[in-house]
Write a structure and sequence with these properties.
mainly alpha, about 75% helix, about 0% strand, Ferritin
């Protein structure tokens, strides 16, 4: 396997684990609301599952079908996402920010949209057969995951009117 692609798959897996940590932190923020806390815990578990899929799939990626010039684009997407997630984790885990329900869902909505956008960008860069069917199915699951987030948002956030693609405020 190409070491650069292996590293990118590892970093992509790390993105999923960082998202899981954010959802775990949101579960803790809302521990006084068992249903909402459980929702965030389940979402965190789904992200850990996504990380495992990427780890399994990295051994099946056909490196010959990933153009070398596309690796830097992919790396840029992943590193941008990691930097964003690290900032959000610092705010949440450091206690600097205790989001409202609306802010928590806005954050999650932004994260899920960024992940789907980065995946879509990656898929445009390489042939589907290069990344493997499992990763493509992960993308489809992420789309459904985003829909589930909006369903939950309509249940838990009375201010929710329609899906958002804007970034939440950074305090």
């Amino acid at each position: 396997m190409n070491p650069a692609i292996s590293e990118l798959m590892d970093r992509s897996s790390m993105v999923e684990l960082k998202v899981a940590r954010i959802y775990d932190a949101l579960s803790a923020v809302f521990k006084d609301d068992p249903a909402l806390s459980s929702f965030w815990t389940l979402f965190a578990e789904a992200e850990r599952y996504h990380s495992l899929i990427l780890q399994l799939q990295k051994h099946l990626v056909d490196c010959r079908m990933v153009p070398p010039e596309r690796i830097d684009d992919w790396r840029g997407d992943v590193e941008t996402m990691i930097a964003y997630l690290d900032g959000q984790l610092q705010r949440l885990e450091g206690g600097a920010w205790r989001p409202t329900v609306a802010e928590a869902f806005a954050l999650a909505d932004h994260i899920e949209n960024q992940v789907v956008e980065a995946q879509s960008h990656s898929f445009k860069m390489v042939d589907r057969s290069a990344i493997g069917d499992l990763v493509y199915r992960l993308h489809e699951e992420d789309l459904r995951h985003r829909d589930k987030l909006n369903e939950a948002r309509s249940r838990f956030d009375p201010s929710f009117a329609s899906p958002s693609v804007s970034e939440p405020d950074s305090a």
